[in-house]
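Narrative of activities, Objective 1.

The group set out to show that a structural description can be obtained from nothing but a protein's sequence at a throughput compatible with the screening campaign. Below is one input-output pair from the validation batch, recorded exactly as produced.
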Amino acid sequence: MQKGNVKVLLVYPEYPSTFWSYKYALRYFGKKALYPPLGLPTVAAMLPKEWRKKLVDMSMETLRDDDLRWADYVFISAMVAQRKSVHEVIERCRKLQVKIVAGGPLFTSDPETFAAVDHLVLNEAEITLPPFLSDLDKGCAKHIYSSPEWPDLSQTLLPSWELIDFRKYASLSIQYSRGCPFDCEFCDVVLLNGNRPRTKSRAQILAELDALYNRGWRGSVFFVDDNFIGNKRKLKTEILPAVIEWMRQRKFPFSFSTQVSINLADDEELMRLMAGAGFRAVFVGIESPNEESLIEADKVPNLERDLLGCVKKIHNHGMEVLGGFVVGFDSDPPSIFESQIDFIQKSGIVTAMVSLLIAPRGTRLYQRLKKENRIVGDISGDNTDCTTNLIPRMGYKTLLDGYKNMIHNIYSPKPYYERCKILLTDYKSQRTGAPRLQLVYLTALLKSIWFLGVKGEGRKYYWKLLAWTLLRRPNSFWYAVYLQFTGAHFHQVAEGYAKTPILELKP
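Output recorded for this entry:
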């Protein structure tokens, strides 16, 4: 096969409708999906330039048999939540006799399941993809390529964004670092990306921002880092000052979000710099207000601190906290569900992702519970779908009943809108530059008036929040409208959870 004639189809399998899909909110803005895949465009940049490449994101477009027949190789990357779609894509490729190359978190964590894949390129592509490509060129490519090494991110190339239609997405993504300095018992980040945060250079980050800007993007950008503040010193001395200057020169075209640990609240300088750079939201794994549960999980940064005060402090610095919460720890008391509800309401965390405790394969939690004969299979990859792969000490029925009650409580209209008011009161915006009023926002507002303000179950709370915002926080009006959209999504997702049956779990 001649190099120039190689045709590669990069496939991102369908991502199920979940808490984080924002499926019901995106329709107000006419968007197909929240984020484009980041891994596949990055891998595409590493392939020979003369190869012909196409990308299909199945979350927003149909994968046709003609696409598969066109390709010499189908490259698949996926998260665990995409497992069902992955198997369907593999089956279609096998029927059409198209060779498959697969990598990413799903395949790296469970390669034995995918014997039907021709070539598994596991771990991080900066190390394992080059030897695969070399062997492929020689006609001797192996079934599996893996490595225990963690690559220097200076090797990471700019993604091939020309393969992506930006207009169909609500936000774009870039990556600054991989890895997390902490090792929580239930988390598989250290297995996939290591304990020592590895970072890109200032020049790389600015080049990635330029790439998005020069292709016309204006809007939200998500830093997909495991823990953005894993290396605080470099952020404060190199990266954030450079991003602030870049944003100022271009009149703040982006707003940023990312994932951090709660110890961000300990660093006033870092919070000021992040807000000044345009960070508007941070996801924080709070997990539990119960100290014994945090000790059990080895959630070191959350121990012996005023978690509620930390959330308020981050809000006061102009960054909304999106909170992760977990129920089902062995140390959880019977009152844990009410304690979680109380904490979430008082915190003003509007986006509260509550999940049952799960044990990803290979984690310390998985290994401990395996010895106790309490593992009941694999995780679904969606930690908010009312499933778990472990036998909880409190009993599954008790856990699921309590979980459903939590979700119903926090995402019913009245408590949700109450949290919106708390957030809007605490949130001290550091926004620089006037917000861009676009036609899409006006259209979305009109849709919200009809679907939420006229037809919606919580319509009286909808109008109360808009009126309260106009009187008390007029500068936050569009923010309040956005919160209404996300609330509609969460409410519909919660309604689906209520129908989940209670199953008997056996090891």
